[in-house]
Amino acid sequence: MLPFVPVVADSLLICLLFWQLPYVGLRFWDSSGTQAAVLTAVFVIMCAGVILVRKLEARENGSNLTIPALLLDGRLHLISAIAFALLFVTLLAWQFGYFDAIFEANTLTLGEGEASALFVFAPGAWLAMAFLYVIFLVLKVTPTISMENGRYFWLASFALLAINLMQFTMTAQLMAWVQGQSLSGAWLWGLMFAGFALLFGPPRWIYLSKQPDWGGGLTSLVVWMLSAWLIIR
User: What are 189-219's pLDDT values in tens digits?
Assistant: First the structure.
């Protein structure tokens, strides 16, 4: 059943994108603390999923699919994690209304503590939380969840679903922003597709290196292309 886990996870994501994306994207256009809390909660769930993917042991006898060494390179994963962290902080700040606040704030009337909280402590706390993802994705992890473990299937399923949930949430957030700015064009679709591949590729490539299967590799490309298309359509 393990070869079907990424295919099923991606199929559920496709259904969710067509079913709920317009509604959720509309909600994300109006920045609020509730949306920021949702974004944070999904981020935490995704981090748990990434850790689980890295803790899974590899299958000894896989298919003929071999993940190129470049896609498993730690330097690429570091770039991906940093890019993800910076984008997440930007989206989180937008949901909190931070950008409006810093441009409208009168520094002459703000107290020292208020100014420090607005310009230093708040963004610093968000950055610290977001950069935990760099640790989860890049630092060395010893796989301890063996194939013989009866929970292997369920943990792998949860991990991929958690990562896909983050992709759905980020798609909704980016769709709200891009359509609000009236941006479009083939170049933007290409940029979005490359962005999704960079941000969400490493966890999937790690999984496929342990459970190699062409189906999971192809469906990952489909959901990245679909997310990019739905953002700009």
Answer: 999 999 999 999 999 999 999 999 899 999 9
Handedness of CA 141, 146, 147, 150 (dihedral sign): negative
Burial group, residue 85, by CB count within 10 angstroms (0-12, 13-18, 19+): buried
Residue keyed to tokens 């939380």: 129
- How far apart CA 55 and CA 53 sit, in angstroms, is 5
The parent domain of residue 15 ranges over 2-104+111-232
Q: In this predicted structure, what is the pLDDT of residue 117?
A: 45
DSSP string, 39-84: HHHHHHHHHHHHHHHHHBPPPSS--S----GGGG-HHHHHHHHHHH
Q: Tell me: the pLDDT tens digits for 37-77?
A: 999 999 999 999 999 999 999 987 656 678 999 999 999 99
Nearest Cα residue to 222 out of 184, 172, 167: 167
Q: Which residues pair with 145 in a beta bridge?
A: 56
Query: In this structure, what are the phi and psi dihedrals at residue 102, rounded to the nearest 5 degrees?
Result: -70, -30
- 108: how many CB neighbours lie within 10 A of its CB? 5
Residue pair 224/200 in contact (Cβ under 8 Å)? The answer is yes
Furthest CA-CA distance within the chain: 67
Q: What is this structure's pTM?
A: 0.89
Q: What's the structural domain count of the chain?
A: 1
